[in-house]
Amino acid sequence: MNGIFITTELEGALAERVHALQMEFDPKMARALPPHITLTGSSGAGPLPPDTPVALMREKLEPVAARTAPITLSFGPPERFIGRNIVSLRLDPHGPLRALHEAIKQCGLPFQPARWPFTPHCTLNLYPELTQEKLRKMMAVRIDEPFTVRTLKVYHTREPQPPTLLFQLLLRG
């Protein structure tokens, strides 16, 4: 994978709690990025080409961030992606998070085709094979408290290298 992804990151005690879970279930993934929700790059809109100029991305994304207020969200129970060994905390794909995703998708940047429909989530594991014990433990995770996301973060992902943060914007609508 070599492309540019747009995320929003968890903050504070919630980010620490989710990071601890990720470290337990998938240390390799947990070391690559802080706990986050991918807004574009994997579902709903594919990644941006790696040669997309940073100035162009800023120009197109700054108005989106300027008119979007911070968004309060709640995780649902963990779900396993069908046919894959990936477990994530899912989010409602409708409402303000969908509106933000659509605003980004329609901002005029050259997103590549998406592989899946928009499925917002925070991944608990990505790389290791799942044992039945680990799967049971992940599926029992519950995070009930609402939380607020306040940023857009733009990363260049060039596996197997760690992602590089290109810039971030505050949601300030």
Mean pLDDT: 94
Task: Compute the number of strand runs.
Answer: 9
Residues in β-strands, percent: 25-35%
**Shape designation:** globular
The run of helices and strands is EHHEHEEEHEHEEE
Q: Percent helix among the residues?
A: 25-40%
Q: Please count the helical segments.
A: 5
Task: Summarize the main sheet.
Answer: 4 strands, antiparallel
CA(first)-CA(last) distance: 33 Å
Low confidence ranges: none
Instruction: Provide the structure class.
Output: alpha+beta
CATH architecture: Alpha-Beta Complex
Protein name: 2'-5' RNA ligase family protein
Pfam family, one: 2_5_RNA_ligase2
GO molecular function, one term: ligase activity
Keywords: Ligase
Q: Could you describe the 3D structure shown?
A:
- This protein is of the alpha+beta class.
- The chain has a single domain, classed as Cyclic Phosphodiesterase, Chain: A (Alpha-Beta Complex), CATH 3.90.1140.
- The chain is built from five helices and nine strands, in the order βααβαβββαβαβββ.
- The protein has a four-stranded antiparallel sheet with strand order 2-1-8-9. Strands 4-5-6 form a three-stranded antiparallel sheet. A two-stranded antiparallel ribbon has the order 3-7.
- The longest helix is centred in the N-terminal third of the chain and has 14 residues, at 12-25.
- The chain is globular, with a radius of gyration of 16 Å.
- The N and C termini lie far apart (33 Å).
- This is 2'-5' RNA ligase family protein.
- One of its GO terms (molecular function) is ligase activity.
